[in-house]
Amino acid sequence: MKRSLPTRQGGSKRTVAGLADQVLVAVTSACTGLLATAVLAPTAAGLTLYAMLVLYFVQGVGRACVGDVMLTYVARFEDPAERRRQFQNAHASIAVLSIGAMVVLLGIWLFGPKHSVADLVWGIPFVPSVLLQDLSRYTYQTQGQQAKALVIDICWVVAQVVSVVIALVIGLRSGGALLAAWGIGATAGAVVFYSRTRINPLRGRPLRWLRDTRHLMGWFTATGVLGQIHTLLVGSLVKGFLTVDAFAGFRLVQTLVLQPSQSLAMALNGLLVPRSSRLAGARDTAGLRRQTRLVLGVALGIGVVVVTAAATLGHPVLHWYKHGQYAFVTPIAVPIAIQAWIFIMQVPFTVAVRGMHRGWSLFVQYALYSGTALAGLCIGAQSHGLIGAVWGLISGAGVGLIVQAVMFVLAYRSLIRMSMETPQEQPVLASS
């Protein structure tokens, strides 16, 4: 008999499990990048980190096309059979996307600049595993089953750690080995998920998923893809305007300071977007307002901690790490922490806007943020090098925060007007 996905967990346990899961994912992702800087010379590490950035780009596109849409859309379904159909359609869609991504990446590796993408070939075979395992986490998050997501991520991490240890023991100290270890871990996590849920991507219908979610996928996907293009462009421009060593240092500080904040933002999205969607669907404007205020207060406190930690620990840690080989990036620690703080402050507004299905608002906000940030990076890098590039990125983050807050206010007022006209949406969506 096939197992149906379990019902939602209690709030406190779900929150603890969700945060623990995201901490695990964040620490593992950060350690993968840190390990590259630890076992490789700065130039070689920079090339490996760039290959990882390309793979993160593909993973992000998968989230934009399927994962983020699923969090918002499928969360409103209450019928187990319909939920399973939607999940299978989503997994089939990500499988098709992963095959297309493999073809594109292989072309980049074959015909692109070999010096910049040489390590990429080690990650290409594992693209389906990485995307499917990532969507598996989103599937459990959509159901509020954070503990189940934690289990499959633990399997991923254990398999990746074992692979890394074996590679180091037999002397494979290369970026390719690190990328392959990541893929092996993702494969283990995906296998555990599919064996537990019996969801079969081969039975899904990608075209049906596109049809059912087209009202969300257009803007949500465009925003997510734009975000991944922005991230890839930032890395490419830093590497292009400056040096590979500067890019390695830039990514090191991002890994230590910015990435944990981004992982926290992802955790809050996974926890709160489905709830926001249900609140908005029920026209519960008071509940949505309370949630936004609470998360805003938490984000403010976390931001203070991040900036204080960077100001206090940035200098000693970077001068100690690898005998000071990355000490030259110490001046960017606090600015990147400020950028992280601004990003965290956006989370409550983004969560609410996603829950209200205002995809176009998210796209407009990200377009304005990305345009300002990239322009600031180029101007800053040409005039003041790496520190100028980072402050240019901060200018874009500030614009993004202001615009997101405005978009939230506009969407919230619209929801209030709708609640006066229509009490609430039907709790169970009919299949298309």
Short description:
This protein is an all-alpha fold.
Description:
- The chain crosses the membrane at residues 21-41, 47-71, 92-111, 117-135, 147-170, 176-195, 216-238, 250-273, 294-314, 326-351, 363-383, 389-412.
- It is a multi-pass membrane protein.
- InterPro entries: Poly_Biosynth_Transport.
- Its main location: membrane.
- The chain is mainly α and 432 residues long.
- 82% of the residues lie in helices and 0% in strands.
- It is built from 13 helices and no strands.
- The protein has helices spanning 11-39, 42-73, 80-111, 114-117, 127-142, 146-169, 175-197, 206-212, 214-241, 244-281, 285-320, 333-355, 359-421.
Estimate the global geometry from the Cα principal axes.
globular
Tell me about the largest β-sheet.
none
Approximately how much helix is present in the residues?
over 70%
Q: Report the uncertain regions.
A: 1-9, 425-432
DSSP summary, beta strand count? 0
Helix-strand makeup class? mainly alpha
H/E topology pattern: HHHHHHHHHHHHH
Q: What's the layout of helices and strands?
A:
Blueprint: H1 11-39, H2 42-73, H3 80-111, H4 114-117, H5 127-142, H6 146-169, H7 175-197, H8 206-212, H9 214-241, H10 244-281, H11 285-320, H12 333-355, H13 359-421
List keywords for this structure.
single chain; mainly alpha; 13 helices; disordered C terminus
